[in-house]
Design brief:
Blueprint (H helix, E strand, L loop, with lengths): L1 E12 L2 E13 L4 E5 L6 H8 L7 E6 L2 E2 L4 H7 E4 L11 H11 L4 H14 L15 H13 L5 E5 L7 H18 L2 E5 L3 H7 L2 E6 L2 E6 L1 H9 L1 E7 L2 H10 L5 E5 L2 E6 L2 H14 L4 E7 L3 H9 L11
């Protein structure tokens, strides 16, 4: 569905040249759900805009849904859907009218557009809102309408740029339930950006991480967590001296003193490592007051890759 090689975008700001994307190599197969992660300014939206023909690449090639984004952008647009960060519906039409108008823009007959609008109203639970104006909808309802607008022409590939940003947890869960229902109903290939790492962790089949305009990791969430972050073992001791001893014992793997009496180890398999570590502490005369194991998160992966955390501070307002 997507095949990009050396995709680059250079911006010129007065006398400066800013490389937003430095050479992306990416292949996405039909039916996948891809989460595209990275901090603000990493190149996520620029990459999406190039793949959706909204922004011409400076160099490189990309084939999306079987057509070159530079040579045949109209054919690409006819085969993809795109839901941007901002709401796509106008303020003057009613919800159903918006969907019908979108269908007419794709050269559907009036009857075809009306039938498709009704189908999407049911699919995305918008039927009770059909006669309301978009400006009367909640944030979650508007995002569902945006997704419906992106699906009017039955695209095989749907791009979603931050589909749940700014929504409350209940609305986010509702939007995601509808996104997953789309895959079940149509087998749609979904390529999305998100700042909510738990969404990517639990929903995406594949996670691609971009930073400074380059892809720095690509795999399933579990693969990235196992290979790049590892499990964690955390213990507390009675004294700082015991913590220092515990850190030295754990130095054979990877250990740090998180604070005065807390020691954290990064290990391949926490369940197997903890009993052995506790025996080594006991032999050294160090008593662990508490001990726990934790699985890594995608934020741990990002921290390992970039040296910083992808926190809520990166979420756009």
């Amino acid at each position: 569905m997507i095949h990009a090689r050396g995709l680059t975008r250079v911006f010129k700001l007065k006398k400066q040249r800013v490389e937003a994307v430095r050479g992306i190599d990416l292949d996405v197969e039909e039916g996948q759900l891809i989460a595209f992660l990275g901090p603000n300014g990493a190149g996520k939206s620029t990459t999406l805009r190039m793949l959706t023909t909204l922004l011409p690449p400076t160099s490189g090639t990309a084939t999306v849904a079987g057509h070159d984004v530079a040579r045949d952008p109209a054919a690409v647009r006819a085969r993809i859907g795109y839901v941007g960060q901002k709401n796509g519906a106008g303020e003057t039409f009613r919800v159903r009218d918006e969907l019908v108008t979108q269908g007419r823009c794709y050269r559907m007959t009036r009857r075809e557009a009306a039938a498709r609008a009704d189908e999407l109203l049911d699919l995305l639970d918008l039927r009770p809102l059909a006669k309301r104006g978009p400006n009367t909808l909640s944030g979650g309802q508007r995002r569902r309408l945006d997704i419906a607008l992106g699906l009017v022409h039955r695209p095989a590939l749907l791009f979603l740029d931050e589909p749940s940003t700014g929504l409350d947890p209940k609305s986010r869960a509702e939007v995601w339930s509808h996104i997953l229902r789309l895959r079940e109903a149509y087998g749609t290939t979904l390529f999305l950006t998100t700042h909510y790492l738990e969404e990517a962790d639990s929903m995406a089949e594949r996670v691609v991480v971009i930073d400074n305009g380059e892809i720095i990791a690509d795999g399933t969430a579990e693969q990235l967590k196992n290979d790049l972050a590892g499990d964690h073992v955390t213990i507390t001791t009675a004294t700082e001296q015991d913590a220092a001893t515990a850190a030295r014992i754990g130095a054979a793997v990877s250990s740090e003193i998180a604070n005065g009496t807390t020691v954290r180890l990064r290990v391949a398999n926490a369940a197997a490592a903890l009993p052995e570590y506790l025996r080594a502490l006991d032999a050294a005369g160090v008593k662990a007051v508490t001990a726990e194991t934790t699985r890594p998160t995608l934020d741990d992966v990002f921290l390992t890759l970039t040296g910083r955390s992808l926190t809520d501070d990166d979420i756009p307002a």
